[in-house]
Amino acid sequence: MLLAKLLLVSSIVLGLSNNAYGSGLEGVVTHVRDGDTIEVLSVPIRLEGLHVPELGSRAGDDAKTFVSQLLKGKSVSCSLAGPKSYDRHVGVCFLEGRDLAEIIISAGYGRDCPRFSKGRYRSFEIEAVQNWPLPKYC
Hints:
It is a single chain. The chain has 4 helices and 9 strands; from the N terminus they run H-E-E-E-E-E-H-E-E-E-H-E-H. By secondary structure, the protein is α+β, with helices and mostly antiparallel strands. The chain has a 5-stranded mixed β-barrel. It has a two-stranded antiparallel sheet with strand order 5-9. The chain starts with a helix and ends in a 21-residue tail after the last helix. This is TNase-like domain-containing protein.
């Protein structure tokens, strides 16, 4: 009984909930690791279906700067439906009701990763990024 109460309290503190898509997380973005990985309430989340170049490349560094400025002090809601990738949960996050990966791709900082997105972001890619190579996992 005590363990159940502790789990309930920790879920509330972390902003976790269950929904039709799996676990949900809602809260302030506490850190931006790179262009496709954020932390919400210190929980790392890899944005599903999004490919952003790695840090150390101009495009990857620019993407991190864009995402950092976009999310500074803002809250997001995420649906965590996928398995973990390294130490990160995989999910789709929304900023003011708009899919965060869609925003990043539309702004020219990322590409659709069709293996995981099933192509849902392809139409948002701008011409300037369509020649960026996709990693093999996409």
